[in-house]
Amino acid sequence: MTTTSSAPGKVYLFGEHAVVYGEPAVPCAIERRAHVTVSEREDSRLRVCSGDLSIDGFTVEYSGDRDAGGTPDVDVPAPIVDAAMGYVDAAVEQARAAADAPTAGFDVTIDSEIPLGAGLGSSAAVVVAGIDAATRELGVELDAREVADRAYQVEHTVQDGEASRADTFCSAMGGVVRVSGDDCTTLDAPALPFVIGYDGTSHDTGELVAGVRALREEFGFVADTVTAIGDLVRRGEAALADGDVATLGRLMDINHGLLSGLGVSGRTLDAMVWAARDGGADGAKLTGAGGGGSIVALDAGSGAETALSLTPDCEAAFRADLAREGVRVE
Ligand code: MEV
């Protein structure tokens, strides 16, 4: 048998970084999905093929048998392949545990529309889709919350304890999510016409989080910026409930300014944010840890995407509407 599941990536509408200090944040699933196809093998080996996993400008076309010490098809540094494939190994372990099949082997094929390392939740989407596909392949159907929980365990292990539940919950459940500490819930929301700009780089989340912590320790008043982001998120929840997209855009603009104050924006992110605004977006901000990576704008028209695609700092510009559906079997 063969089973394919898919799961969406995500952007932060509001609240990254402040969420580390207990404020709420609002990640949203986007219509850019990772597809994972799984076939159970007759032996207990794991064979992983991945087309087009772009990491830091590399493309990994890994087509080896990890059990047999397989190698990537192209010259990609081993640590990068190992990091990407570590998620798959751990996801398969979760599926084996959930289905009580500790020696099950699989052929796994990953096909992702979400650039890796861009702050768009690609690893969570691969893990969520992988757990769902592998458990189904073994005859077990987990509910999306259990997939989210098991995917969080994977990220927690692979990232040495440095994972929040936001990415995995959002990818498994879909929609607009409110995260506060370990509490995740989905929120009612209007259609959100996201446009994403990606500068082709990725930055270390741990370093950026540590940078905010150092700034906060040196300048006590920076804590007020963190609180202001929390207040903005609470105001944003009301705008979501009212379906008030114009106010959501204005709040995104303010959120970007506050994130700049925390020192996590950068030239390419600012250039893309301004391009999207000049193109007519309702609002725009960086999404994720910052430094570089991606911005998200709200624009029902085509102006922001066009403006981004003409921006030298922007490597890729694309629409990705709010994904109402989380993990699903294809
Ligand atoms: C990174 O995607 C989001 C941060 O808030 C870190 C975290 O929540 O773990 C910057």
Describe the 3D structure.
The radius of gyration is 19 Å and the shape is globular. It folds into 2 domains: 2-187, Ribosomal Protein S5, domain 2; 194-319, GHMP kinase, C-terminal domain (Alpha-Beta Plaits, 2-Layer Sandwich), CATH 3.30.70. It has 330 residues and is of the alpha+beta class. The longest helix has 21 residues, at 78-98. It has helices at 78-98, 122-137, 144-158, 166-173, 205-218, 222-242, 245-261, 267-278, 303-309; strands at 2-14, 26-40, 46-55, 58-65, 106-112, 176-180, 183-187, 194-198, 283-287, 294-298, 316-319, 328-329. The chain contains 9 helices and 12 strands. The strands form 3 sheets. A 6-stranded mixed sheet has the order 4-3-5-2-1-12, with helices on both faces. The chain has a 4-stranded antiparallel sheet with strand order 9-10-8-11. A hairpin with a 6-residue loop joins strand 9 (283-287) and strand 10 (294-298). It binds (R)-mevalonate. (R)-mevalonate (MEV) binds next to helix 5.
What is the terminal-to-terminal distance? 14 Å
State the helicity in percent bands: 25-40%
CATH topology annotation of the largest domain: Ribosomal Protein S5, domain 2
Q: Helical region count?
A: 9
Which parts are unreliable, with pLDDT below 50 for 5 consecutive residues or more? 54-64
- What overall form do the CA principal axes indicate? globular
Give the name of the CATH architecture of the largest domain. Answer: 2-Layer Sandwich
The helix-and-strand class reads alpha+beta
Mean pLDDT: 90
Instruction: Count structural domains.
Output: 2
How many strands, which pairing sense, and closed or not: the largest β-sheet?
6 strands, mixed
Series of H and E elements:
EEEEHEHHHEEEHHHHEEHEE
Question: In CATH, what is the class of the largest domain?
Answer: Alpha Beta
Strand order of the largest sheet: 4-3-5-2-1-12
Ligand set: (R)-mevalonate
Total strands = 12
Strand content: 25-35%
Gyration radius, in Å: 19 Å
